[in-house]
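Narrative summary of target 7.
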Amino acid sequence: MMPSSGRLFVTAALARTYPRVAWMFRHRVWLIQETFLPLLSVAAFAYVYRSMHAPAEYVGFVVLGAAMTAFWMNVLWSMGAHLYWERDSGNLELYILSPAPLMGILAGMALGGMTTTCVRALTIITAGVLIFDVPFQPTSWWLLGFIFLLTMVALYGLGMMFASVFLLYGREAWHTVNLLQEPVYLMTGMNFPVKALGQMLTHALPAIAMLIPLTGGMDAMRQVLFRSEGFLSVWTEVGLLAGLSLVFLTLARWTLATLERKARRDGALTVKWQ
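Modeled conformation, tokenized:
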């Protein structure tokens, strides 16, 4: 008997989550490359801010930015480009032919990737607190957790949309992923307050940057953690993140449905180099 659609979705998501979580314990060398090496760039910016006698929370901005950027990299490489890699390895045919929804499979990829990335992010934050004495003074832990979860939903919804779009574009996915790395570091204010973009360039730039979930999420969390002034108020950015979550998840569902129709109609989507 065929299981219900909800149960099938959950089963597919958990099954796809397991390999990524298990890999974290079986290949522990990744801890050095993915966790300790990023601390070097954090240390560089931290020492620069301290040498300039910048406000103490600026070091916290860098630490939080490095932790959250890990999720952006996971979205690009482990979500956005993943279906493209799965096609080359021959697994995409199994995904499309199976009764499991592609949305459930990608949700599993997101949960697994989020789990491993949380380890890296927590290590960076812990090191920042212990080494640089980052002054965390959150106004509300509940609000901070809510903003973080909302940011993850919007961010991984964007990753699900990227997965199907990159696959449809074929080889251009690789170039697009590389293209989106460095500009996003600037637009999201990874190492500085995002409102500084308006002071240096134009006020329209931070507004455009707010369309990237990482920008609003980090700006809101910095306001809660360090009681600093943000580009927008916390609740305005929470509403924006909720809207982006809805938009990206809806677009992801639509693009994945388009992807499945194309695969079944043309039979060429899973052929290598097409």
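Residues 5-16+28-266 form one domain.
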